Amino acid sequence: MKLITNNIYYVGVNDRQKALFENLWPLPHGVAYNSYLILDRKVVLVDTVEICYSEIFFRKIDEVLQGRKIDYLIIDHIEPDHGGCIGLLRNRYPDVQIIGNKQTLSMLAGYHNITDGLLEVKDGDTVDVGARRLSFHTAPMVHWPEVMFTYDAASKTLFSADAFGTYGTLDGGIIDTELNPAPFWDEMIRYYSNIVGKYGNPVQKALQKTAQLDVRIICSTHGPVWTEHRAKAIDIYNRLSRYEGVGGVTLIYGSMYGHTEQMAETIAAALSDGGVRDIAMHNVSRSHSSYILRDLFNYRGVIIGSPTYSNQLFPEIDSLLKKIEIRELKNRLYGYFGSFTWCGAAVKRLETFGEQMKWETVSEPVEQKQNISTAEQCYALGARMAERIKN
């Protein structure tokens, strides 16, 4: 347990075992499931943790409470990595009153068969717990429909559910001033692109709500507690949810025998010659889509290349495009290229993809037959993208 401020304690846990978040996204540095206790005249728990860490979780709670009981459980987000221990909590504290919005309480019945001892709150409602009054602010689709934020005006603390969260365990420190925040920024972008990415408009609405509050501390359900660096965390979410890429290029390709890869190398050289310094180059057979999506959300330019495979796109490229489509990524500068031996199809399919995404195509595509050199055209594609990025 860790005192954050003004009788607010961290009782979350680290998961260093799970390899894939949601059984999809790599966790090379693990992940934290954050939960918070507020001690006042009433004792309030904000969210729980994944059920497999229940023993550690309840031990931390007992250490803080020293025999006191929990009066309220606030469910800001009921996804199982945060709501997993709700049933166990009700067994330990049968009189605990559970606070949630209408959507939350419906899901509570579905996940945990709990239908009594509930307090439904609406957007803007408040609950007095002693010296402080907690207010509730719905944030639907950030990134589930039931999500809400809880605000404590006394300590100027925002409990933000998954918003402003990151991958990565908390190794010793909990608050951003107690650790090096640098590794978490890329992981915040990766987390956003993987988990929240589709929901830019709802994130913008949530940010507009929180802008009306005097927030000095952000307690997310993943990653550090943001204090000194809270403005940067908010800025990252604001930029990503507006689909505003910075001045770099994500260069993605599939290649069976190296011909498409050599096209990509020429394009990358032209980008560099044109002054682009941030070039994220991904071979889809080696780069996990989690990291490719991170760079796609981060950079304004996108160039995709694929060989024709059974009159279709290279399968890993095709899979990636579906993930991009799901996230409805907007406002990108687009270039594309491809190769074939006897029948070309990849370039046409990449053209259709760009049209569906409503991205701005910056250059004529390049299509290479067999090993007939297209170096000049590839260089021109990269140079044109560099020009658009720089200008």
Topology of helices and strands:
Layout: E1 2-5, E2 8-10, E3 13-15, E4 20-21, E5 25-26, E6 31-33, E7 36-39, E8 43-46, H1 54-65, E9 72-74, H2 80-83, H3 86-92, E10 97-100, H4 102-112, E11 118-120, E12 126-128, E13 133-138, E14 148-152, E15 157-159, H5 182-196, H6 200-210, E16 217-219, H7 230-241, E17 246-253, H8 259-273, E18 279-283, H9 289-298, E19 299-309, E20 312-313, H10 315-327, E21 333-340, H11 346-357, E22 360-361, E23 366-369, H12 375-390
The secondary structure category is alpha/beta
Q: Globular, elongated, flat, extended or rod-shaped: what is the shape?
A: elongated
Q: How many runs of DSSP E, i.e. beta strands?
A: 23
- Termini separation: 50 Å
Helical amount: 25-40%
Unreliable spans are none
